[in-house]
Structure formats: structure tokens, C-alpha cells
């Protein structure tokens, strides 16, 4: 448990790093070295930069130092610092080298044999050449030093891992045998003396701090620390709840954000109280190194307990059931209310003996006994936790909770088998491995609970901020014209990516007690970050993220530009609506190609790669993509020449209707029954198309009326022209006209022609005119065709019919 407890500041760093989705946690230092590292960094900022020779000398000294398990992390940090300085030296001097090369290029090459030049130029060239050569040599040495640093760091990591594995797999006397207890009895007097020495140091320091002159200040600091840790947390929790209820909208984001705020307040207030009180004690007394380390360790343990308690209280939310993140019934949450306190207390108790052993340099028998105690206490804690959670699994159907997934049952079974395995390892003597597994099991539970909150928070942030149901999402929808489905898909994708990043950080947090630390894991992940070569392509995660960012920003900017063109600029010009749509579409295609090109460039794919892809696509075009390419080119021709544009009334074969949209591959035509016909663009280029509105957008109404020869033609002409002029849909210019086409089958053929603003109106106007004309002809008793009465029936007797 000691390794897990020493990673408490790292877990908080992981929380912050995962919350911000950045890698700043890689440089999180140990709590015991915070003050020294801060002073060292300040001194390094004021001191002059070391030379390559000085850095090489520092590396040699560190390499020659004694090898021990405690020294390895410190030496590894020092070596990495030397590597960072070497890289900084190379980066700073590279620009200077480029300037020297440029100045030498301005002076030109030395003169040929027998030629002369000005002495000043010769001296200047010699001086610059000397400086350039010296600087180039320093840069080469710094690069070699950086390579040596990486190699030595890898060796130290391997050495540290080997020491960790050797200690873990070491077998000790079993607690079931007599040797274990005899060794412990023999070592007890010496261990007790060491422990009494540390206790005496603590007692002396406390006695000195609570003298007559400083007693008031120390007790005042103690009372203030207790008020800050207890009352401060109570006030902060209630205040955060009220602020969240007033400022944040109701929803999942408010709940997850409140959990994070409560945990952060618990940790910050307890850390300020504990470390502040330790600082007061250190100011008013002189402490021995062991006593000082013991006080700082106790403060660190209190911070860990505050983190666990705050996390548990925030997740259970017994006083605010509607704010509870996990789906736990109220009765079960009340039943589990004491569990966070139990976990924090037992974990601290299991950590205390191991920390005391490290402080007093206890005997091997004491270390073995500590491992046994840690394994038993922590496995008992895990058993109690599962026993308390058992009613939750039994009452899940009655409480309306979903049935437990299969993977949860498998996980519980694996944990149970692991507990049994730990007991067996303790019985056979592998107490170090048993203690490590028990500590790792407890640590994994705490990390899983912490990252459960972060997973929920990441999902809630994007669902509440980007989805179509959120206020910001609705603003995005109105501003950029995005579809609700697009926003929901974007929120889901962003939530998934954030969860993947959080899962990566969770693995780093879980690996902290595994004989390694975040720095080593980040170092390994940094190798992956340099790129993975697949064939001839170098896939770099940073480049992939840059390409995605360029694509997102580019397409958003392109959408804003097209929206500005369509709504602001083009309507103020003299272009027709169809021409405006064509310009917007063409610019959209061109902008999309540019965005894709920039994204590929950010990904590291140059023009030669694109040419290679194009040549590969040409083979596919030759085999089966001719029609697609033909339609694409035809679409570009339609947009450029505009024989057909958006809004035209076209007739293509048996299809007649309005052109609604010209896409890359096909054109959409809306016909009279309101359905849409999708026609390939090549049809408009290779076939005969009748464009009713290309040159003239007016429509024509044609009416032919057959009438008897006895009809008053002049009266018919006046009636029809009067009806055409009276209709509001008929244009005055060109004026309506009526002609007598001739005589067909003993009938006069009258033909009326009227013009309307659009061909789309011709059918309706023609119907209206026919109704009006027929009504007026009937009123004037002007029949269209002569009336022929049927002959009367013949009588049965053959007499003449009656008239």
C-alpha cells in the first residue's frame, strides 16, 4: 500500500490532466520534493545555461553513483533533466547555426587560386567559419549527449523494474510457521529502539513547538486546521450545491460537475489544513529528518483520506438523491454512507506500518510482517465492500435497476479468486507479492471510482454543450445551419474520443504502484507519440490530431463563408438566383478540395503522395469509375456553362419539372406530383434537353376552340380577348392574341395565345381561362359545335312518327 499511497499527488495530477485532456501530469513531482524542486527550478532559471561539457560531466557523475532502489527514481529524474537541457541547447543553437550559414552564404565562396579579395572579407569569412565549425561541433556533441541520456534512462528503467520484480517474487518465512514468529521476536528489540528514536524526535519537536512563547500560535493553528478541514468542507459542500443549483441548468452535467467540485474542495481544504499545520510546526521547532518526514507523511495520508471520503460522499449523495451519479437506490446509498470513511481509514492504517518501516529502516522481519498485515487488512476491506454491495445486486430487479451485465459478474468472480490467491500467497510465504496484489486491488478500486466520475463528466460536457438538445447546440444549429443529427453525431464522437483519452490516463494511474510511475509510462507513450510507420507512411498521433483540427476548422470556415455568400453578398449583386447557387456550389467544391489538401499536408502526406494516390485511382477509374467521373465532370460543366441552373423548368425525355439542386454526381428535378427525380449529370450533356426558362422565363397559354360556321367570329374574338385581359395571371406585354386558324370539318378553329410570368403557371391559368370562356359563350348562346337532335322512334304499326 505504500507505493499506492505515495502516488496520491499523482492521482490528483491525473484527475486534473484527464479533466483538461492534456499531458501536464507527466511532470508531476513527488510531494516530498516539491519545495526542493521549486527552489531548484528557480535557481536554474537564474543560473547561466550549462555547456555541453558540463552536462556531460553531470551525466558521468550520476552514472557513477551507487545503484539502489531508492536512488533510481531520483537519478532517472536527474538524467531526464540533463536530456531536456541538451535538447534545449540544440534547439537554441540551431537557429544561430542557420544565421552563420546565411552570413557565410552572403560572403560567397573563397576566391579561386590566384584571385584576390578584400582583406576584411577574408578575415570575416575566417571568423565566421571558425564560429560555425565550433557551434556545429557543440550541436553534434549535444545530440550525442541526448542519445546517451535516453540510453541510460532506458537502462535505469530496466534496472528499476528488475529490482521491483526481484523484491516482489522474493519468498519469506510463512506466518503459519514458527520461523516467521521467531524472526519477528528476535528483531523486535532493535526495531523498537528505532521506533522509539523516531517517537522521541516527534516528542521533542512537539515539546519545543508548544513552549510558553509559541504554544498559543501552534494551538491556534491546530484549531484553525480542524475548522478548515471539518467545518470548511461542510460549508463548501453546501455552498457548491447552492451555486450549482442556481447557475447551472438542470441535467447530468450539473451532477457530475458538482461531484468533481466537492472532491476538489475536500482535497484542497484538507491539504491546506494539514500542510499548513505542518508548516507551522516546522517554523516553531527544529525537527529531526525522520520526524519531519513522518509529519509530512501524515499530512499526505490525510489528503488521501480526504480524497477517498470526498469521492465517496459525492457519489453516494445521501442528502441529495436526485443529484446522485450512479444508479443506486436511496436505501442502499444510506447503507453505504459509512463505506468511504471505512475505506479511507483502513487504507491509511494499512499504509502506516509500511511508512514507519521505511522511516526507521526496520528489519526484514518487520517488513515481512508488514506485508502480511497489509495483505490481510486490504483483502478484508475488499471483502467488506463486496458484502455491503451484495444487497444492491439482490434488490436490483425490485428497485427497477437494469440487470447486472455479464462482465460485472466475471469481474467479481476474478476479484474473489484474487483474494483467495492472496491468502494462499501469504500462507506459502510470498508475502511481498500478496501485499502488492492487495494494494493494487484497493488502488484500482479507488482509481476506477475516480475515473467513473471523469467518464460521466466527459460524456455530460459534450452532450450538454454540443448536442442538438442543448442551448449551445441550438445556437450552432442556427448559426451554421447544421442538422440536429449532425450535432448529435458530433457530440457522440467527441464523447467517445474524450473517453478514449481518459482511459489512457486511467491506465497510467493504475500503473503508478506497479514498480513504475507516470513519468515512465509517459516516456513509453512518448515513443508511440513520435509515430508509427505503416508501410511508407509515418502515422504520428500529433499529426493526426492536427489534421482533424485543420479539417474541422476548415470546413466550419468554409460553411460560414458559403453562408455569407448565399445570404449577404450574392443577393446584393445582379446575378440570377440560379447563378448565385452555382457560384456558391462551385466555391464550396473548391474550398472542400483546399481543406482536404491542407488536412493531408498536416497529416504529413505531401504532393507526391497525393500523386501516388491519384495514379492508383486512375487504375480504378479505368475499370469501373468512368460513369462517376463522367457525371462529376458533367456537373462541373453544368455549374460553369449553366445550360441548366437551379430554378429552371426543364424537359428531359418524359421528365418535366423544376431543377432544385445540382450535386456532384446528379441533379434533382421536382416534377408536378411533388416527387423528385434524380438524373445523372451526364444526361444533361449528352442528350437533348428542353429548358423552358433558359432565354425567356415567360410561359405561354394556348387554347383551341372549334365553333360552327354560323358563329359570330367577331363576337367570339371580343369575348376571349376580354377574358384573357381580365385574368390577373396574364401578362399585358406581350398582349393576348386570337387568330382564326381556318375551317376543319365544317368548324371554325379559333386559337388564343396568352403569356404568363412562368411556365409553371400556364396550366392553372389555362384552366381558369377555359372556365371563364365557356361560361361567357354559354351566356351569349354561342355553341362550340352544332347541336344534332336524335331521330324520333318509329311506331310499331309502321305509321309516321308524331311531330
Helix and strand topology:
Blueprint: H1 2-5, H2 8-20, H3 34-46, H4 52-63, H5 71-107, H6 119-168, H7 178-209, H8 215-247, H9 252-283, H10 289-316, H11 330-335, H12 339-360, H13 364-394, H14 406-428, H15 431-465, H16 471-480, H17 484-510, H18 518-529, E1 532-534, E2 537-539, H19 541-569, H20 577-603, H21 607-624, H22 626-641, E3 649-652, E4 655-662, E5 666-671, E6 676-680, H23 681-686, E7 690-691, E8 699-708, H24 713-726, E9 737-744, E10 747-756, H25 762-779
Description:
The protein is of the alpha+beta class and 803 residues long. It is built from 25 helices and ten strands. It has helices spanning 2-5, 8-20, 34-46, 52-63, 71-107, 119-168, 178-209, 215-247, 252-283, 289-316, 330-335, 339-360, 364-394, 406-428, 431-465, 471-480, 484-510, 518-529, 541-569, 577-603, 607-624, 626-641, 681-686, 713-726, 762-779, and strands at residues 532-534, 537-539, 649-652, 655-662, 666-671, 676-680, 690-691, 699-708, 737-744, 747-756. The strands form three sheets. Strands 6-5-4-3-7 form a five-stranded antiparallel beta sheet. Strands 8-10-9 form a three-stranded antiparallel beta sheet. It has a two-stranded antiparallel sheet with strand order 1-2. Strand 9 and strand 10 form a beta hairpin. Helix 8 runs antiparallel to helix 9 (252-283). The radius of gyration is 44 Å and the shape is elongated. The N and C termini lie far apart (127 Å). The model is unreliable at 1-14, 16-46 and 794-803 (pLDDT under 50).
Amino acid at each position: 500500500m505504500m507505493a499506492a499511497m505515495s502516488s496520491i499527488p499523482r492521482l490528483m495530477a491525473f484527475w486534473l490532466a484527464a479533466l483538461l485532456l492534456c499531458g501536464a501530469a507527466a511532470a508531476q513531482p513527488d510531494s516530498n520534493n516539491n519545495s526542493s524542486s521549486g527552489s531548484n527550478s528557480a535557481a536554474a532559471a537564474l543560473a547561466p545555461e550549462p555547456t555541453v561539457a558540463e552536462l556531460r560531466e553531470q551525466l558521468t557523475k550520476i552514472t557513477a553513483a551507487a545503484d539502489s532502489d531508492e536512488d533510481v527514481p531520483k537519478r532517472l529524474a536527474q538524467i531526464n533533466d540533463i536530456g531536456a537541457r541538451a535538447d534545449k541547447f540544440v534547439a537554441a543553437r540551431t537557429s544561430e547555426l542557420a544565421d552563420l550559414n546565411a552570413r557565410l552564404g552572403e560572403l560567397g565562396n573563397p576566391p579561386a587560386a590566384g584571385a584576390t579579395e578584400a582583406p576584411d572579407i577574408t578575415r570575416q569569412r575566417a571568423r565566421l567559419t571558425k564560429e560555425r565549425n565550433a557551434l556545429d561541433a557543440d550541436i553534434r556533441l549535444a545530440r550525442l549527449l541526448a542519445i546517451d541520456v535516453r540510453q541510460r534512462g532506458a537502462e535505469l528503467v530496466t534496472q528499476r523494474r528488475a529490482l521491483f520484480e526481484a523484491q516482489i517474487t522474493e519468498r519469506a518465512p510463512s506466518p503459519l510457521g514458527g520461523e516467521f514468529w521467531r524472526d519477528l521476536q528476535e528483531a523486535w528489540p532493535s526495531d523498537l529502539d528505532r521506533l522509539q528514536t523516531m517517537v522521541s524526535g516527534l516528542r521533542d519537536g512537539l515539546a519545543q513547538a508548544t513552549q510558553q512563547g509559541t504554544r498559543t500560535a501552534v494551538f491556534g493553528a491546530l484549531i484553525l486546521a480542524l475548522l478548515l478541514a471539518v467545518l470548511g468542507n461542510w460549508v463548501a459542500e453546501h455552498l457548491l450545491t447552492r451555486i450549482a443549483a442556481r447557475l447551472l441548468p438542470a441535467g447530468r452535467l450539473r451532477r457530475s460537475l458538482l461531484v468533481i467540485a466537492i472532491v476538489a474542495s475536500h482535497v484542497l481544504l484538507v491539504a491546506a489544513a494539514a500542510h499548513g499545520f505542518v508548516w507551522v510546526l516546522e517554523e516553531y521547532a527544529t525537527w529531526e529528518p525522520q520526524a519531519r518526514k513522518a509529519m509530512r507523511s501524515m499530512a499526505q495520508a490525510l489528503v488521501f483520506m480526504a480524497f477517498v471520503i470526498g469521492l465517496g460522499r459525492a457519489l453516494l449523495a445521501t442528502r441529495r438523491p436526485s443529484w446522485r451519479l450512479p444508479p443506486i437506490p436511496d436505501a442502499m446509498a444510506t447503507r453505504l454512507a459509512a463505506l468511504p470513511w471505512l475505506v479511507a481509514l483502513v487504507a491509511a492504517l494499512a499504509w502506516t506500518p509500511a511508512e514507519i518501516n521505511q522511516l526507521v529502516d526496520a528489519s526484514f522481519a518487520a517488513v515481512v510482517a508488514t506485508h502480511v498485515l497489509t495483505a490481510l487488512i486490504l483483502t478484508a476491506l475488499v471483502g467488506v465492500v463486496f458484502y455491503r454491495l451484495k444487497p444492491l445486486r439482490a434488490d436490483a430487479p425490485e428497485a427497477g435497476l437494469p440487470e447486472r451485465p455479464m462482465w460485472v459478474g466475471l469481474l467479481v468472480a476474478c476479484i474473489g479468486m484474487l483474494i483467495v490467491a492472496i491468502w494462499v500467497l501469504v500462507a506459502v510465504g510470498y508475502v511481498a507479492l500478496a501485499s502488492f496484489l492487495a494494494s493494487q486491488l484497493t488502488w484500482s478500486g479507488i482509481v476506477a471510482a475516480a475515473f467513473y466520475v471523469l467518464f460521466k463528466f466527459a460524456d455530460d460536457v459534450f452532450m450538454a454543450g454540443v448536442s442538438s438538445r442543448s442551448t449551445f447546440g441550438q445556437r450552432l444549429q442556427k448559426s451554421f445551419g447544421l442538422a440536429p443529427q449532425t450535432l448529435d453525431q458530433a457530440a457522440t464522437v467527441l464523447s467517445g474520443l474524450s473517453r478514449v483519452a481518459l482511459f489512457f490516463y486511467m491506465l497510467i494511474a493504475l500503473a503508478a504502484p506497479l514498480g513504475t510511475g507516470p513519468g515512465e509510462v509517459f516516456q513509453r507513450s512518448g515513443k508511440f507519440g513520435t509515430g508509427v510507420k505503416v508501410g511508407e507512411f509515418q502515422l504520428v498521433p500529433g499529426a493526426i490530431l492536427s489534421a482533424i483540427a485543420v479539417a474541422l476548422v476548415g470546413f466550419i470556415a468554409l460553411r460560414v463563408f458559403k453562408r455569407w455568400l448565399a445570404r449577404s453578398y450574392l443577393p446584393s449583386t445582379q446575378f440570377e438566383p440560379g447563378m448565385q447557387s452555382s457560384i456558391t456550389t462551385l466555391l464550396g467544391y473548391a474550398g472542400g478540395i483546399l481543406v482536404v489538401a491542407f488536412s493531408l499536408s498536416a497529416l504529413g502526406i505531401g504532393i507526391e503522395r497525393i500523386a501516388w494516390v491519384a495514379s492508383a485511382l486512375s487504375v480504378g477509374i479505368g475499370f469501373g469509375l468512368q460513369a462517376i467521373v463522367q457525371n462529376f465532370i458533367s456537373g462541373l460543366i453544368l455549374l460553369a456553362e449553366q445550360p441548366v441552373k437551379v430554378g429552371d423548368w426543364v424537359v428531359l425525355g418524359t421528365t418535366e419539372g423544376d431543377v432544385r439542386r445540382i450535386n456532384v454526381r446528379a441533379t434533382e428535378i421536382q416534377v408536378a406530383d411533388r416527387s423528385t427525380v434524380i438524373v445523372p449529370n451526364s444526361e444533361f450533356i449528352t442528350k437533348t434537353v428542353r429548358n423552358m426558362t433558359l432565354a425567356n422565363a415567360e410561359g405561354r397559354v394556348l387554347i383551341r376552340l372549334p365553333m360552327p360556321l354560323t358563329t359570330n367570329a367577331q363576337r367570339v374574338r371580343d369575348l376571349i380577348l376580354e377574358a384573357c385581359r381580365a385574368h390577373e395571371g396574364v401578362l399585358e406585354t406581350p398582349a393576348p392574341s386570337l387568330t382564326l386558324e381556318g375551317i376543319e370539318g365544317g368548324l371554325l378553329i379559333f386559337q388564343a395565345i396568352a403569356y404568363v410570368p412562368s411556365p409553371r403557371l400556364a396550366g392553372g391559368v389555362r384552366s381558369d381561362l377555359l372556365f371563364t370562356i365557356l361560361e361567357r359563350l354559354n351566356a351569349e348562346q354561342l355553341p362550340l359545335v352544332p347541336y344534332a337532335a336524335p331521330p324520333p322512334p318509329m311506331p310499331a304499326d309502321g305509321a309516321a312518327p308524331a311531330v
